[in-house]
Amino acid sequence: MTDQERPVIQVTIAAPVDDVWRALREKDKIRHWHGWDDPGLDAEIDLIYFQSFVEDAPARTLGVQEGDQIVLEPDGDGTRVTLTRAPRGVSPEWDAYYDDITEGWTTFMHQLRFFLERQPGGHRRTVFLAGTTAGAPPLLPELGLDGVAVQPAGSAFEATLAGQDVKGEVWFRSENQLGVTVDAWGDGLLVVAYAGPTVDKPAGTAMAVLSTYGLDEAYAELNDRWAAWWGERYPASAEA
Question: Which of 5, 169, 183, 235 is the most exposed place for a label (fewest CB within 10 A)?
């Protein structure tokens, strides 16, 4: 794989370079944008960002995970963050998950932007859902987001998500993912992805990450409602 073929994920964040750098190097900040609530989250953060890494703090560059490179550059009053994936073959045991890791980084980089721009002092609680799509309806139309997916970033939308009427704005759209803010979740964020069956993944894949803030008792109801809605449509793989 040449440098030109290495996947590149780029976001521009309305925050100074120093603030973005701290969000990449301080554990109590990383856990508010990397991944989702999970008993293994802290161990994963340690493994990726603090065990096998190459850091050049003055240059604001960080190498993680066998060669993934994160570079911060000033962009007006904000910061351009560029993550370039390591070439395939650098870590052969991870090559089978290469595309999944790229999609994971896409989610995390947009969650990083959301954390810094919308919830820098917030305490998130997340709902994570994953499942199969063979024989299931496409996720975006099922969520009522198929029209939203073609709107430009920053545009407003209204939808009924798993039985809840919400408003928000389009946060990002990538080839395989859609992110939208959700006002009813304490100004939260929903990231969803859907892929139909393929030769490599005959069951297909679907994913949703719900980042919520300040819901208190309402969080349990949201979690239960989404788990039930999701499980009826995109059941977990039998191999999970």
Answer: 5
